[in-house]
Amino acid sequence: MNFATIEAASLISIANTNIESTFKSIKKARRIGGALEASV
Q1: How far apart are CA 28 and CA 24, in angstroms?
Q2: 1 three-state secondary structure
Q3: Model confidence over 1-40: pLDDT tens digits?
Q4: What integer pLDDT is reported at residue 22 of this predicted model?
Q5: Rounded distance, CA 33 to CA 25, Å?
Q6: What gap in Å lies between CA 25 and CA 27, rounded to an integer?
Q7: Burial 3-38 (b: 16+ CB within 10 A, else e)
Q8: Ramachandran angles phi, psi of 3, nearest 5°
Q9: What predicted TM-score, i.e. pTM, was given to this entire model?
Q10: Residue 38: its pLDDT value, please?
């Protein structure tokens, strides 16, 4: 494994982590939004 491959692999894993946390926060926001709509 050369340096470029290691760098690319770490960038991909960082991107995947960011996507996961973004999806989680979207789901959380939807849940909060749904609760707010229900209480109105």
Answers
A1: 6
A2: coil
A3: 688 898 999 999 999 999 999 999 999 999 988 888 888 7
A4: 94
A5: 12
A6: 5
A7: eeeeeeeeeeeeeeeeeeeeeeeeeeeeeeeeeeee
A8: -60, -40
A9: 0.57
A10: 84
